[in-house]
Amino acid sequence: MSASGVGIRLQHLRVNFGSFVAVDGIVLQVEPGESFGIVGESGSGKSTLLRALCGLVPMARGGMTLFQAQGQAALPALGSPAYRRMVQIVFQDPYGSLHPRQTVDRILSEPLIIHNVEGQQARIVRALDEVGLGASFRFRYPHQLSGGQRQRVAIARALILEPQILLLDEPTSALDASVQAEVLNLLDDLRQRRGLTYVMVSHDLAVVTHLCSRLMVMQGGRCVEMAAADDLAARRVHEPYTQALMAASEGFRREQTENGV
Amino acid sequence: MSSAPLLDVQDLQVSFADRHGDWIDAVKSVSFTLGRERLGIVGESGSGKSQTGRAIMGLTPPEARVRASRMRLGETDLLTCSPQQRRELRGKRMTMVLQDPKFSLNPVMTIGEQIVETLQAHRPMSRAQALEETLSALVAVQIDNPQRVFGLYPHEVSGGMGQRAMIAMMLCPEPDLLIADEPTSALDVTVQLQVLSILDKLVSQRGMGLIFVSHDLRLVSSFCDRILVMYAGRVVEELKAGGLSQAQHPYTRGLLHCLPKLGQPVRPLPTLSRQAEWLL
């Protein structure tokens, strides 16, 4: 939409579940219009961090603010309806994130009703067009769609409020390789057209480096390394954990069987 | 045994009836033979790769129809087996590792008890001996503290640990053939490789045949001796390990190229344009 996108700044973010510290001491600045990746294995806190960013889990400490490159217009605070409209999320599993008994039309109109947006019909048709589905999909149920089509609906639902920041929680890990390529292309294209800021979580280094210019490697709730995509491509990584992830992304090697990874 | 292949499948067909009663072929004419080697079956969802594995195990749902001109495990004809004989083969001569240990292990039994049960189902033995063999099976899959893991329930262990327990359970009857259906897809990449290396070592030590079913072309090509690429119920191409770059079929090449690669950015990613003639 607007040329000047919105960025996110995190200061010493911490999330607790009871006495368990899921995410701790994350300091991060995602520039407006940037695409930022978060990599780590299950339990590393990457999804929790993303959920904290959209207000789905409370922060125990630290803060988070939105900012713009120029123009100091007041940006909404975390938790306000305006904030939610500006920051939207696409979940991992399109089989679980769409209501099974609602049509695509109903799924897409829900955010519009909540936020009292005008011109709902036109917006739904346009959102479907934008994700490459077309109006013929409007009155179908999720079970009548393939995994890739469902993920497109989930992306349309996130985009229909015209957010500035899109949070992506493993958006392609439930999809086949060829469908993954289509969804990645769609995300790439949408970001260029709308000047969106992406924060994407994935366990697949190749996927993250394809979409993101910079990334953070997480382990045990903490950031262990920050790297640019170019550093990864040139194998300039220092942390043993990042190196293990890189080796793992290249497939199985029989020599390493003795010592594992 | 050495002369006949371990497994010989010719013209395997698995069909399901749709709501009008017409038969839809999930697997259309798949033929291959397997020796004591690692065979990979790769394809996307709906290509029939899992149904191929299940038909060999005899785990096709009863409403489906399985036909083949030949399906033999060593000297045993799987087509004419009674359900009783089939049940004896399963576990003793061929076993299967399923995708997600969260769903494929019994949630209300400890891991140790499940392995003890498997052992005692296939070989009559005392409980003391079963306990001892269970612990050594857990050690064989590189579980450091077998005593502790023995008493844990599946929900109390990580995915990697659960899958190792599953492999331990499936290997303890010492089968000739192991079918692994996406055994590492639910695991983290680093854990994936640990589980694969354990599987690899045990399979080669015991000289078993392995059918590795997966959607991950690159992983399979680095792990298996031979790969069958399936599309819409057919084998469209057979490849040697490491021969991925020589793949001829446009589907295989398409699958390979649509994966993003570290350090070689391509924008936009090539996508697969499916051709109608691949279905023929």
The main pleated sheet of chain B reads as: 6 strands, mixed
Classification by helices and strands of chain B: alpha/beta
**Architecture of chain B, CATH level 2?**
3-Layer(aba) Sandwich
* CATH C-level label of chain B: Alpha Beta
The count of domains of chain B is 1
Q: Indicate the mean pLDDT of chain B.
A: 89
Count of DSSP E strands of chain A?
Answer: 9
This entry's quaternary arrangement is heterodimer
The backbone outline of chain B, from C-alpha atoms, is: globular
Strand-residue proportion of chain A = 15-25%
- Describe the main β-sheet of chain A briefly: 6 strands, mixed
Distance between the termini of chain A: 45 Å
Strand order across the largest sheet of chain B: 7-8-9-3-10-11
Mean pLDDT of chain A: 88
Using the CA coordinates, give the radius of gyration of chain B. 20 Å
- Strand elements of chain B, count: 11
Strand order of the largest sheet of chain A: 5-6-7-3-8-9
Radius of gyration of chain A: 19 Å
Report on the structure:
The complex is a heterodimer of chains A (about 260) and B (about 280). Chain A has a single domain (about 5-255), classed as P-loop containing nucleotide triphosphate hydrolases (Rossmann fold, 3-Layer(aba) Sandwich), CATH 3.40.50. Chain A has helices at about 45-55, 80-85, 105-115, 120-130, 145-160, 175-195, 205-210, 230-235, 240-250; strands spanning about 5-15, 20-30, 35-40, 60-70, 85-90, 165-170, 195-200, 215-220, 220-230. In chain A, strand 8 and strand 9 (about 220-230) form a beta hairpin. In chain A, the strands form 2 sheets. A 6-stranded mixed β-sheet of chain A has the order 5-6-7-3-8-9, with helices on both faces. In chain A, strands 2-1-4 form a 3-stranded antiparallel β-sheet. Helices cover about 35% and strands about 25% of the residues of chain A. Chain A starts with 5 loop residues before the first strand and ends in a 13-residue tail after the last helix. The model of chain A is unreliable at about 255-260 (pLDDT under 50). Chain B is an alpha/beta fold. Chain B has one domain (about 35-50, about 85-280): Rossmann fold (3-Layer(aba) Sandwich). Chain B is built from 10 helices and 11 strands. Chain B has helices at about 50-55, 85-90, 100-105, 110-120, 125-140, 145-150, 160-170, 190-205, 215-225, 250-255; strands at about 5-15, 25-35, 40, 65, 70-75, 75, 95, 175-180, 210-215, 225-230, 235-240. In chain B, strands 7-8-9-3-10-11 form a 6-stranded mixed β-sheet, sandwiched between helices. In chain B, strands 1, 2, 4, 5 and 6 form a 5-stranded antiparallel β-sheet that branches. The radius of gyration of chain B is 20 Å and the shape is globular. The model of chain B has no long low-confidence stretch (mean pLDDT about 90). At the A-B interface, helix 6, helix 7, helix 8 and helix 9 of A face helix 8 and helix 9 of B.
